[in-house]
Amino acid sequence: MTSMTSVVLLAGCSSDGDDTGSTTISTDQTTTTRTTESETTSETTSEATTSDSTTTSGEIRTVAFGEYTSVGNDLKIAATGGDVSSSYKHDGTTSKSADGKMFGLVTFKLNNSAESSQSLPEGTTASIRADDEQYDVAEPAAKNWQQFVSSSVEPGGSASTTIAFEVPKEAASSVDVAVQLTYSESGADQLIQWRE
User: Where are stretches of biased composition, namely Low complexity (predicted)?
Assistant: First the structure.
């Protein structure tokens, strides 16, 4: 059984780098349009401050595979497993992967330490990123994922589900893989990625 957990994701790091790069380019372009050096510094600083205060980009968190991290009020989630298989069992049936593809199987676990029932934010999505390509939840696992997102975890309780992501065989053996969870909080997109 091939493990998908011994991986490294560069996408998260490059994303941060891209954001910083785009800001730098914007600042440089602004600088070239000014004729007075002192005015350039003042106006550039003001524009940068305004941009920071109005941004809607959220947090990107990278955690170790199997590690719990917060998602909402006292609700924590972890991604474990990471096996690869040609089949996926769900709802009493077994689905086979398409020719040239495999299922990446990931188990998501929720732990609620709050004094009230908690659930994942509506619209939470999961994906696998391999070799700079993103693969969403496989069709046979879509129902399980939606039920997991909408399920209510009792105070002090936990929940788990195993989800399949259909990926090309070459991606299944890639060393550049991460499990990703995306959700919205206070109007900003949040990204959690698990890797080793």
Answer: 20-58
